[in-house]
Amino acid sequence: MKKNKLASILLVALCLASTVKSYAQTTKKWEGFSDQQEITQSFELKTEELLKNSKFITIEQAAVDLVAVEGKKVDMSAVKLRKKALDAAEIAALIQPSFVAFATAYDCGNCHRTHLNTASGYIISEDGLIATNHHVIEGFIESKNGKNLAMSIRTHDGDVFLVSEIISAFKDADLAIVKIDTKGKKLIPLPLGNTAQVGDNVFVMSNPAPMINYFSTGKVARNYLSPVSKTEKLPQTDITADYAAGSSGAPIVDQYGNLISTVSSTRSIYYDMKEQKNLQMVVKNTKPVVLLKELIKSI
Fold first, then answer.
1. Which positions make up the signal peptide (predicted)?
2. Residues 6+ apart with CB under 8 A from 267
3. What does the DSSP 8-state code read for residue 230?
4. What is the Cα Rg of the chain in Å?
5. Which H or E run contains 117?
6. Which of 147, 180, 213 is the last residue of a domain?
7. What is the pLDDT of residues 39-78, one digit of tens each?
8. Does residue 190 fall inside a structural domain?
9. Residue range of the domain that includes 224
10. Residue 245: CATH number of its domain
11. Coil, strand, or helix at residue 119?
12. What span, in angstroms and rounded, lies between the C-alpha atoms of 299 and 158?
């Protein structure tokens, strides 16, 4: 009886494997449509391999460095501003090479696989400087989902790198800059633009979980000063373009493809705020590029 049951289980497993293989072999390639599952699986597998043979910053070191580099100014070359106005499709194609998936690789403790908790980021120098949110780095350090292993970066062409160093941080502005070892590969950085005006068009590329490479458009809703302490206020920019959890650290660009802000958070406004009922709108809070420039010497 036990042998028959085992044989049946093995047969089912073989059938399922055969079905998956057959599906993989016969699935048509649709031009212009990305396979999100394939991208995610490849990201995980490449991260696993890098964890075996690459140098990367650990949780312990990241916790020390994130505090140590607070306010540190980075020496990097300015990227020439783009001046040609583009339509939305052109902007999406233009900024894609500078956009990255910024993931925390972790061990869930229940299986042998390496899992990824993915956020967003963008390239600011060709030699491997990446900008994202400060709270993304804090999330890696806090290690809530299991045992966090490393921070992993995926570029648009499928290359994967582990974060080797935290270069600079601005906690009150929710911004951080990290470094990856590109092994000599030159990346494509985003030019750092200027403050956008209320009513200007904005464009966002981000990874709202579980989606990746999600492009949305909107307007600058308001520019204002927000208190971060009893004595200090910092610039903020609210926009109307959609984004969600997983979009943290994503680039926001203008009609030319220049960076104008960084995704940071959302705030839901309910008719009944106390009971959080009858949602009326979601405010999209971002960190204007002037705050990132505070961390860069040459700008």
1. 1-24
2. 282, 283, 285
3. S
4. 21
5. strand 115-123
6. 180
7. 999 999 999 999 999 999 999 999 999 999 999 999 999 8
8. no
9. 201-293
10. 2.40.10.10
11. strand
12. 30
